[in-house]
Amino acid sequence: MIIDTDTASDDAVALVLALTDPRAQVLAVTVASGNVPLTPAVQNALYTVELCGADVPVHAGADRPLQRPAQYATDVHGQDGMGDIGLVLHGREPRPEHAVDVLIDLVRRNPGEITLVTLGPLTNIALALRKAPDIAALIPRVVMMAGAADGLGNVTPAAEFNVWVDPEAADIVYRSGMPLVQVGWDVSRKDATLTLAEGDELAARGPLGEFCVRIQRQLVEFCREVTHIDGFDLPDPVTMAVALEPAVATRVERRYVVVETSGDHTTGATLVDHLGVTGEPPNVDVVLAADRARFREMLLQAGAARAGR
Ligand code: BDR
Ligand code: CA
């Protein structure tokens, strides 16, 4: 597995899920600008990898979207992306190789074997596809936290954050011909929200569980005030759960999906042709529901794991 992430609070939980799961061999964590600028996103990834006691290289990638100015989500995840709880996040160095080169190299060296999990804007993946179009045919599964199958956005009425930040990159990926699995914000909202009591239960499982919950401090505020959830939703972790265990996706429909790159009000929307009206061949396995109970179990297991398994 390669994990591409704009590491902030929910990305970090997804990393904990993967890095503590004995079924996953994580070859690299590649980082892009998104929730926070590139440098703090890299620091957050390094901190989380170290906390898990994992020997996994972290590589910095794109520091901005392909064509647009960078946009961040510090209102959702905190200024440092990790809930501003006072973690000492500096002092660690990523590996020197650029994330895009590492993506290309690892895919070429492991043809047909890599699951690529994307948890942020798709800038690094689009850059890799532009530089090395051959890799599209070498990746058997791409599981993306991206878009919204029901058309309800979380940044604009139409667009989900990861796609909205870099719609041109998302457009390249959605048209790439790679076997794509979309886990959208709709799935997170319906099936991957923890109540505060469920958060307490996770935190009580062990140091990793406590970390996973404490760093959501700003997200909990955001959910209370903006999305009116008494708890917090975990879009990247449920995406990772689907990547680790495909049966977590309980309803999946293969559909034609396009990304809006030039709408007056809809830039960054993912348009799912639910009724097949375009007649275009389907390009995405769209996840419409997830097994909430199994997802919670996986979180609790990761929360109880000991570092350096
Ligand atoms: C996505 O945007 C970020 O805030 C989260 O990390 C997640 O990847 C949800 O729209
Ligand atoms: Ca993310």
TrEMBL record:
Segments crossing the lipid bilayer: none
Q: Which Pfam families match?
A: IU_nuc_hydro (PF01156)
Entry keyword Cytoplasm:
no
Report keywords, A-Z: Glycosidase, Hydrolase
UniProt xrefs under InterPro entries: I/U_nuclsd_hydro_CS, Inosine/uridine_hydrolase_dom, IUN_hydrolase, Ribo_hydro-like
Gene Ontology molecular functions? hydrolase activity
List each copy of the Inosine/uridine-preferring nucleoside hydrolase domain by range.
1-297
Q: What is this protein called?
A: Nucleoside hydrolase
